[in-house]
Amino acid sequence: MWGALAQVLFFALLFFGGLAFLAFVVTSLVIPDWRANASFEQTECTVLKKRLAERPGEEAPRYRPEVLIEYEVQGRRYELWTYDITGTFSSDHDREQAKLDDFTIGRKYPCWYDPLAPNRAVLKRGHAWYAWVLMLLPLAMIASGGSGLGYMWFTWGTSTERRAVLAQRAAHLEIFENEASETDQYPTIPRDADLSDSAGVQLAYRLPIRQSQAWMVAATFAVTMVVNSLVAVFAVLAARSHNAGQPDWFLTLFVIPWVAIGIATFVYFVRHVLIATGMGQTVLEISGHPLVPGRHYQAWLSQTGRLKVYRLEWSLVCEEAATYRQGTNTRTTTKQVCRIELLVREDFEIRRGHPLAELREFTVPFDVMHSFQSRHNAVRWKFVVHGKLQGWPDYVREFAVVMMPPRQESL
């Protein structure tokens, strides 16, 4: 429990730290840079003084040109030290001095002032692209932290029984065990290490699900937060320009479609949360893996949630896939070649705290094709759970397995 709480704290710090970092970058660099180039109005100013500002750095001093200018807006005079909107310093003394030498005291030059705050002006415009690239870092922090929080939230309910089983089995593992996986003997058969490394509670192995709702929820959450955070910032700026009596119509027209996109991402996120919480987890465990033709196995299915089910189908499916080129396009066709039906139930209800739990026995036929993977062709085996529900979209959960060639003792 303490380990899980520590992980939640770490991902929360990563997520909210990314949000704070993103807000800082956007408000202090991106928005001022964009407004200085899109919204500032031009006027004429007189250079009164100039200086090369110096700031101590880690290895060497850093420099920045600063010019004292005087200009007039609507009959009112302003004086301020300025150069560009970013206010950044550089370690290149000669380059910064050359920028300062472009201005002569007493001469007039064009400058640009902020119509919302006339006491703010610049002598030089131009996009600081590093500010826009810098946003990638907080966005990555938000995506990582949001994904981690979504994963922890979705897996928080893992039962104490399952954790106990995992701990007991881990205690008996040989640390220096070098036994090669059985699939290593067959280069064209997919490896099964990632399918057999999770212990089950009812049976030997718990199979990983192909499409995890947790990652979908986490991804949509991260996208929703990023999009709506940026939309909120630009919407506030557009509203401020209208309240000041100097509407920025370009910014307003730019924000309107993004507001619609932000609402759509939020609705999409809420939909996935409802699907994940309403449908719950689908758990599938199997008595042995990889599968071998002619052998008998047990499989256990558990479905949690609050669902009214019209029809639930559970089957073991084999499909062939072929990839080919058609003109300049690459296409893949898939065909189901074998299906072993394990369960069909109709018109029943799953209640919270009372999950569906079904144990089935089955025998793999002798004459089926083993798993196969090459560049253009594949034979894939998987368990498929297909549910038709009341009030929810139909859902399909897939669990991949590996089928080995038949063995001599099975023939």
Give the key terms.
411 residues; 5-stranded antiparallel sheet; 36% helix; alpha+beta
How would you explain this protein's 3D organization?
Helix content is 36%, strand content 33%. It is α+β, with helices and mostly antiparallel strands and 411 residues long. α1 (2-38) runs antiparallel to α4 (136-155), α1 (2-38) packs parallel to α6 (213-243) and α4 (136-155) crosses α6 (213-243). It has helices at 2-38, 93-101, 129-134, 136-155, 160-171, 213-243, 249-279; strands at 41-55, 62-73, 76-82, 108-114, 117-122, 205-206, 282-286, 296-303, 307-326, 329-350, 356-363, 372-373, 377-389, 395-401. The strands form 3 sheets. Strands 3-2-1-4-5 form a 5-stranded antiparallel β-sheet. Strands 9, 10, 12, 13 and 14 form a 5-stranded antiparallel β-sheet that branches. A 4-stranded antiparallel β-sheet has the order 6-7-8-11, with no helix packed on it. Residues 170-180 have low confidence and may be disordered. A hairpin with a 3-residue loop joins β12 (372-373) and β13 (377-389). It is elongated. The chain has 7 helices and 14 strands.
